[in-house]
Every structure is written in structure tokens, then in C-alpha cells.
Amino acid sequence: MDILIQQVVSGLATGGIYASLALALVMIYQATDVVNFAQGELAMFATYICWSLINAGLPYWVAFLSTLAIAFVGGVVIERVVIRPVENAPILSIVMVTLGLLVICNSVAGWIWTYLQKPFPSPFSANPIKVGNVVFGAHDLGEIEVTMLVLLCIYLFFRFTPLGLAMRAAAHNPVSSRLVGIRVGWMLALGWGLAAVFGAVAGMMVAPVLTLEPNLMGGVQIYAFAAATLGGFTSPGGAVLGGFIVGVVENLVGTYVSFIGTELKFTVALAMIIVVLLVRPTGLFGTTVVKRV
Amino acid sequence: MNALLDVQALEAFYGRTKALHGVSFSMATGGITTILGANGAGKTTTLRAISRMVRTTGTIRFEGEALERRATEDVVQLGIAHAPEGRGTFVHLTVEENLRLGAWGRRERGNLKDDFERVFGYFPVLHERRRQAAGTLSGGEQQMLAVARALMLRPRLLLLDEPSLGLAPLVVREIFRILRTINQTGVSILLVEQNAALALDLADHVFLLETGRVVMEGPSDVLRKDDAIRRAYLGY
Fold first, then answer.
1. How many CB atoms lie within 10 A of CB A131?
2. Among residues A156, A212, A266, A238, which one has the least CA distance to residue A43?
3. Residues A163, A169: contact at Cβ < 8 Å?
4. ipTM passes above 0.95
5. Topology, domain B3-88+155-234
6. Given an 8 Å threshold on Cβ–Cβ distance, is B93 in contact with A169?
7. d(CA A18, CA A223)
8. How many Cβ atoms sit within 10 Å of the Cβ of residue A183?
9. Cβ-based contacts of A162 with chain B (< 8 Å)
10. B139-154 pLDDT per residue, tens
11. Is any Cβ of chain A less than 8 angstroms from the Cβ of B44?
């Protein structure tokens, strides 16, 4: 029982990371119908920026917040410079652009920071926290807190601020949005900025566990895809819940199904994607989008 | 003439297809003007041209300001509210959120309370349903929402595209009654309608569009008595 609780909590911790990245994917998908394959690599890049800032002597949280700001601006700039010109291109062209971004981010990160693994600090104490017989990693608990805080902020932003409302409107109905005077192009750019922020949070939270290297987010992105597929690519809340489910399932299966262990964990994520697509293609909370073609 | 809106030699294109072949008309401040015409005559396109949603040549001036080079968002900021074909409802958002968005493009930000009171006064049913997702409203309610959303801009000119489409006669009469009230508060209205009898009753000035050209214009009292109009559009 103790092991079970421990594994569930640590699953929630990684699940929070998948949730953040899945949320980033879903936000961009909803607004533009494009899956941003570079989302994970952008997150990795942001994490390297944070590492450089810490190395330059900044305190952890200052570096953390600065990185979020840089990631936001970076996301906006990428949308304006790279995505905007192909906005009206066929969907496959845009997908190719995001794949190109993926490769560029990965290579440039390797070029600047080398492919050697770097330890990345955790802001949380290294001592485990003991509750009864159950031992929790302090980083796991901190990770959950940070993710929850970010999710809460974003929920409040979208639910209660005029700008959040305008962004939702622009994503759902660009034509009507223009007719009420919303600058839809800028809303999409802001969406990219926010998505980059979620990605950066995910990267900085997962880096202490996996250690920092240019392929940091490759695996995480696959889990995030599984999470978004499970929750439904059209449902931000679903993607978040999907993230936590995937995290917990991954951990429990790895612990209790002996032949899977750590080696076949990825297969679990891919299998989840396939099963969801076969059984319920819209995901748990997604809605069917009917389009005229 | 004291023209609120002045359109000259307007041509509009969807890809290579020309939808308007040199439409010219102007409307005075404070009135209700209607554009009549059959399906495909270019009524909706004319409104879309004013809102800069379609590629055009020719000139469009609103209170002397050229609109041709503006983006849709900037036209809105001049005080032109467009309740589009199909009503343009934000179906995922609540009625209240739809209305809030209507005020987004407005120059004077200020308090929305008065505006909410005003539109809820016109359409009490929207007040009852304000927390409901707009997609769950009936067709008539969604049309009311479209008009109410447009009013949140405090517009000087209201563009209405077929507000009667698909609605029960009783609901249509109610909406048209309120349109008259709105006009009396100083909002000019440019109305596109297929229901010619209704439109002629409401409007003071009429343009008749056929295959992308203005073929007839005049005060509605005069055009109502015109034989050709009566046979083709009023059906008696």
C-alpha cells in the first residue's frame, strides 16, 4: 500500500509535467489546428537558458521567472516570424515548419551547450519527506505544487480576464472575433507565448530528474501527446487530466507489471495513443469537430 | 448630402470570381437603409466589403474616412458593428461573454453596466440566459444576441445581414420592432434582407441589387408602389 501511494504521488509529479506540455500542445492546436511538434524542443531550449542564467549567478527563482518571460517573448516572436508567413499554407506545410523548428532548436542547443549531460538544480530540498511509512521526494511534491499553481493561474487568466476571453474567442471563431475588433493574429501570437511558458515550466521541472541535454524533452513530448490524445485535443482541461493519468499509469505499470519495467515504458504511452484513437478518437473530453471540406 | 456611408464603383472578388460589378450608393446619417435582391445578387458581399472581409476595388468612405486600406478590426473601431450572415455566435461562450466581446473594439472602454442594462432591456430573454452557452440558444435568441452583441460596440452604423432568416414570424416582428427603437436612439442601420415586405416597412431608403449592380434606388414608400418590385419581391 505504501509503495502504491508513493508511486501514485511520483506519477502525479511527472504527470504534471506531461500536463503542462500537453496543455501547450492543445492551446496551439485549438487556435490554429496545428500540432506544434517543436513544443518540447522549445521547452528544452528555455531550460538551457535557465541553466545559463543560474550559472551566471542568478538565484534559482529569479532565473526561473526570467526564463518564463524569455520563453513568452520567444514564443510570440516565433509565431510572428516563422508561423505567420505560412498561416494560410496547407496544414502539412505548417507541420513541416514545426518539424523544422524542432530540428533547429535541437541542433542549436547542441551547438551552444554541447550534448553532454548537465546536472540541473532543483529548488526543492533533497531530503525526502516522510508521512507515516510513506516517503515522498521533495522534488516530486514541489513539482506538483508548481504545476498546480501554473494551471490555476492560467485557468483564472482565461476564465476571468478580458484578454483571456478574447483569446478564447479568437481560437474558436476567428471570423466573428475580427468583427468585434479582436486582433486575431496577435491573439494567436500570445497563445504561442503562453504555450512556450508552459513548456518552459515543464522543462525546468523535469530537468533535475532527467538531467539536462538537448534530447531532454523527446520522451516527455511523446507522453504529452498521449496525454493530449487521451484528454482530447480539443479540451484543455482534458489534456491536463490526461497528463496526470498518463503519469500515474506509466509509473504503476512500470512498477507492477514486471516485464515492462523501465525499458518498455514508452511503449505504454504509444499503446495508450493507439487505444484511445481506436476506441474513442475524440479523447475523454474532446468534442467532434465537424468541418465542411 | 450629409453622407454617413458613401460607396463608389465597388467591385468585390472571391478568388477570381467577381461578385460585385461597380456598386455605388450612399446613405444618410440616422436612417435605415435596406439592400434588397435575390440570392447571389451581392447583398452579403456588400456588407462584407464594408467590413473588409473580401477583396475589393473602388472606394468606401465612412464619415469621410476611407475604409479600403483598413483591416476588419480597424473598421470596427470606427463604430461600425456587423451582425453577420449566420449570426456569428461564439457558441462555446456564454451569452454574457458574447456580449462582453461585443464591446471589445470600442474606443471608449468605460463601464459596461449601462450597456448590459440597455441590451437586456431590449431583449429580456438574454438576461435570463446570460450564463448559458450561446450555442444552446434558439435561432431567434441567437439573432437577438447578434444584434445585442453589435450594440455593445455603441455603434454609429449597424450592418445587419438577414436578421429574419429561419425565424418564426412572431420572433421576426419582435426583432424588427426593436430595430426601429434602436434606430431612434441614433444608430444608423444598413439592412440586408430577402424578406422584402418586412424590409420595406422598416427602412426609409432602398437599394435594389441584381447580379452585383444597383439597378434601382429610392425612398421605400416610392419603391413599394413600383410594379416591378411588387411582382418580383413582394409577390402580389
1. 10
2. A212
3. no
4. no
5. Rossmann fold (3.40.50)
6. yes
7. 6
8. 19
9. 100, 104
10. 999 999 999 999 999 9
11. no
